[in-house]
Specification:
It is built from four helices and seven strands; from the N terminus they run βααββαββββα. The protein is an alpha+beta fold. The protein has a seven-stranded antiparallel β-sheet, covered by helices on one side.
Length: 167
């Protein structure tokens, strides 16, 4: 059974400013460098006319994982993530996110929406984590969901600083 990950963040900047950051090469390079963790990297970065497609790899150190996870998959968890954003359509943009853990039958899939919220904007993720392992999959889903949420929180903080510095 999949575990849902609802995640939302609001920014005081308008949709156009947030979308401009999300489609800026420098934003992605600085974000992965600052909050990606040890050995994090961008494997793909394609920017089009108001669109972006990113693939990155990050790790969750083994010391931050419960024993149920490290017994099944020793060492750090390597997570390959993708994020793609479409162009602005009025005051809204949508995209997709995926994440998979190498060496483990688990993945995150979801949609993201950037929309106006008063004079600012909101980014919402509607994601699901699924680990296909009988009996223990649900407990591992919970761990992965918690760690992904922590990563998202750090990325939200980075984005808020980025937007504040560029404003």
């Amino acid at each position: 059974m999949a575990r849902r990950i609802p995640h939302s963040v609001s920014y005081p900047q308008p949709v156009t400013s947030v979308h401009a950051a999300l489609t800026d090469e420098r934003y992605w390079r600085e974000r992965i460098a600052e909050v990606g963790g040890d050995d994090a990297r961008l494997d793909k970065l394609e920017i089009g006319d108001g669109t972006v497609s990113v693939e990155m790899e990050q790790a969750i150190p083994a010391e931050h994982l419960p024993s149920i996870v490290t017994k099944i998959r020793p060492g750090d968890l390597q997570i390959v993530r993708t994020e793609a954003w479409g162009p602005l359509d009025g005051q809204r943009a949508t995209g997709t996110v995926t994440a998979r853990v190498t060496g483990m039958p688990g993945e995150l899939t979801g949609t993201v929406t950037l929309s106006a919220s008063g004079t600012g904007s909101t980014v919402e993720l509607d994601g699901r984590v699924q680990v296909s392992m009988p009996l223990i999959g649900g407990r591992i889903e919970a761990v992965i969901a918690d760690r992904i949420t922590e990563i998202l929180d750090h990325e939200d903080e980075f984005t808020a600083r980025w937007l504040g510095n560029d404003a």
